[in-house]
Amino acid sequence: MIPEDFFNPETIAVLTQRALDAGTSLVLASLILIVGMIVAGTVRKAVVKAVHKSDRIDNTLGSFFASLAYWGLMIMVLIAVLARFGVETTSLVATLGAATLAIGLALQGTLSNLAAGVMIVLFRPYGLGDWVEVAGQSGTVKDINLFTTILATGDNKKVIVPNGEGWGSVIVNYSANETRRVDLGFSIDYGDDIDKAMATITKVLEADKRVLKDPAVFTAVKAHGASSVDIVCRAWCATGDYWGVFFDAMKNVKEAFDKDGISIPYPHEVHITRKS
């Protein structure tokens, strides 16, 4: 039942004021949240932009610090929003401090990703733009934030690797060094001239301006196969030229073999008819 004094002018005035206060707090909290998100996003973009313009700061560090600044501002915004609803921020901080252990146990994976992100930024096993293999995934590093590393695969798929898994596994950085060795394999028939075939391969590789003169192109017989003599060739080039040298060599050596009369064996089937 509604109390008799519910429609008392003083009661209505109090309830109206409380409703206005709650509505005002809700509107202001919403404004603080929206403006805070915009400001945090703007600061993150500004940090990344400033880093890209500076030659003294690595882009990887810039991406990490931009993420750190964003989440730091968002925490401040959330505290300000709670304060609008009358939550004592000092009590909140104390409560969070007391609950740190419980939160840490509940978020072990998240915290380990955060710690791994710090380690990646400090020791830099890879950076933005590097082609890497991390936690079994290969791709170009597009972003390193507090919790994850984002890769773009060769066919432009987005792969998100938790930093904990990336730091805790073997990391292969194909872009770390300025030069790479291109390993090539070719097979010739047993009836072909081995020295001629090796000279042909060497000539093709040395004609490619992307192949370095030092170390020199190396060719040798690798194995005597079931139906072929297998030749290995090793040439050095700039890391960015690796795949171009590889694919062109495979095409050009085949054409040179055809021109020089060197055959490439292929599987044969021999049918034997038994006499009854």
SSE inventory with pairings:
Layout: H1 9-53, H2 59-84, H3 89-98, H4 100-106, H5 108-123, E1 131-134, E2 137-144, E3 148-152, E4 158-162, H6 163-167, E5 171-173, E6 179-188, H7 194-207, E7 218-224, E8 229-238, H8 242-260
Antiparallel strand pairs: 1-2, 1-5, 2-3, 3-4, 6-8, 7-8
Helix pairs in contact: 1-2, 7-8
Short account of what is shown:
By secondary structure, the chain is of the alpha+beta class. It has helices spanning 9-53, 59-84, 89-98, 100-106, 108-123, 163-167, 194-207, 242-260; strands at residues 131-134, 137-144, 148-152, 158-162, 171-173, 179-188, 218-224, 229-238.
Largest sheet: 5 strands, antiparallel
Strand content: 15-25%
Strands of the largest sheet, in order across it?
A: 4-3-2-1-5
- Work out the helicity level: 40-55%
Basic shape: elongated
Number of helices: 8
Order of helices and strands: HHHHHEEEEHEEHEEH
Radius of gyration of CA atoms, rounded to a whole number: 33 Å
Q: Whole-Å distance between the termini? A: 111 Å
| DSSP, total strands | 8
Instruction: Report mean pLDDT, rounded to a whole number.
Output: 83
Describe this structure in words.
- With about 280 residues, this protein is of the alpha+beta class.
- About 50% of the residues lie in helices and about 20% in strands.
- The protein contains eight helices and eight strands.
- It has helices spanning about 10-55, 60-85, 90-100, 100-105, 110-125, 165, 195-205, 240-260, and strands spanning about 130-135, 135-145, 150, 160, 170-175, 180-190, 220-225, 230-240.
- It has a five-stranded antiparallel beta sheet with strand order 4-3-2-1-5. Strands 6-8-7 form a three-stranded antiparallel beta sheet, covered by helices on one side.
- Strand 1 (about 130-135) and strand 2 (about 135-145) form a beta hairpin.
- Helix 7 packs across helix 8 (about 240-260).
- The radius of gyration is 33 Å and the shape is elongated.
- The mean pLDDT is about 85.
